[in-house]
Design a protein that fits this description.
Keywords: Membrane, Transmembrane, Transmembrane helix. The protein is built from eight helices and no strands. The protein is mostly helical. It has one domain: Vanadium-containing Chloroperoxidase, domain 1 (Up-down Bundle), CATH 1.20.144.10. 35% of the residues are buried. The mean pLDDT is 94.
Amino acid sequence: MEHLNQTLFLWLNAPEHPNAFVVTLATFFAEWFIWTIPALIGIGWLRGNEGIRKTMLIASASGLMGLLINQLIGLVWTHPRPFMIGLGHTLIPHAADSSFPSDHLTLWWAVALSFLLQPRLQRAGVALALLGVPIAWARIYLGVHFPFDMFGAIAVAAFSAWLTLHVAGWYLGSIYRLASGIHHRIFGRLIALGWVRE
């Protein structure tokens, strides 16, 4: 399996003299595109009704759960990144920590699959899930992940999305009240002026 993982990596990884535009595009997807997730959740919270806001909270819980599971996996089993074993070409800096599963893709797909499991945001979930593909490619192309790290990410993300949705009754009400209280404290004046939804 590891041989297949390394073979796929070398097939997708950047060549010795990569095209500058492709590197720039890959860097955007690998390092900056992830900020779409907090932006979407923030906009959804500010503009949405109670149902949408609760959906945003479940998606946030899914992402956080996925990242927690990744940390536990890393403690139990450490898998080196390609540059740690001298494989391929690395075009962006990264800490020499465990590569499996990919935190970027886990967070992205955990939110995407959380949306996908909830009827009101299924189209957004499909779009986000598809947009995870160039992120996966970019992190392999730039040399910081193996392909199997991405398969691990989608497995963790799927479990996290399913779990946080099915146990939402345990935490959603209290988290929603807390988040609403913080929202009113921060945006109280703007709410009063009608600029921000209550």
